[in-house]
Amino acid sequence: MSLRPAAPLLAPSLLSADFTRLGEELRMIESAGARVVHVDVMDGRFVPNITIGLPVVEGLRKATALPLDCHLMILEPLRYAADFVKAGADWVSIHQEADPHLHRTLAAIRQAGGKAGVVLNPGTPIETLVDLVGDFDFVLLMSVNPGFGGQSFIPRVLDKVKRLNALRAARGVPFFIQVDGGVSLKNAAELVRAGADCLVAGNAVFKAEDPKAAVAALLREMGAGRQA
Ligand SMILES: O=C(CO)[C@H](O)[C@H](O)COP(=O)(O)O
Ligand SMILES: [Co+2]
């Protein structure tokens, strides 16, 4: 049994998209080959920014068949996590740093029918997840401090991906590893080689001169990383 999905996934982050044309942006990434959409939900409390909420997720659900990956950067995620699944999210991830009751919130996401993920800020060690292995479907490693798109990748996260990959192999449990923040053509292959299965990219896709070509180029790099 492989512990990783068949092919690495690219999840363009709508945070960097044109919010006046979200339907078109979805169609563009879909036709370019993206198979997941990343949706950054921020509450202005856990992070210093406010973005998307439940009504927008409901709208996105009607506009695309792609899985919606909702990254909740909110305090007290248990209050809303199942509601995001009901609104149309397929994957819901919650921050380790925002929730003292991770086990309960992960169970609520799964019970609502979603894939449950835990997110770790750059400074939060992977060892904090050891006693939850089996209770989540994926781990999202932040490679920037959450709150804003367009920041620079923090290089030491690469080693964190490797260590999480080793932990997965040692435990033999098939969760997938996602990386979010500052992903670009410069680091995509290396991240996949280190063990990442899903890369989130905002600016590298939507702020590129040719976003469709950027998706294709990132997917190519990721494929090369998997083969290496
Ligand atoms: O969670 C996030 C920020 O908190 C975003 O998903 C992330 O920053 C993606 O944007 P970029 O690829 O431009 O860094
Ligand atoms: Co995100």
UniProtKB/TrEMBL annotation:
Pathway: Carbohydrate degradation. It holds the Pfam family Ribul_P_3_epim. Binds 1 divalent metal cation per subunit. Gene3D superfamilies: Aldolase class I. InterPro entries: Aldolase_TIM, Ribul_P_3_epim, Ribul_P_3_epim-like, RibuloseP-bd_barrel. It comes from the Bacteria. The active site is at D40 (proton acceptor), D180 (proton donor). Substrate binds at S13, H71, G147, F148, G149, G150, D180, G181, G182. Keywords: Carbohydrate metabolism, Isomerase, Metal-binding. Its cofactor is Zn(2+); a divalent metal cation; Fe(2+); Co(2+). It catalyses: D-ribulose 5-phosphate = D-xylulose 5-phosphate. Signal peptide: none annotated. A divalent metal cation binds at H38, D40, H71, D180. The keyword Transmembrane does not apply. Its EC number is 5.1.3.1. HAMAP family: RPE. NCBIfam families: PRK05581.1-4, rpe. Belongs to the ribulose-phosphate 3-epimerase family. PANTHER family: RIBULOSE-5-PHOSPHATE-3-EPIMERASE. Catalyzes the reversible epimerization of D-ribulose 5-phosphate to D-xylulose 5-phosphate. This is Ribulose-phosphate 3-epimerase. It comes from Geothrix edaphica.
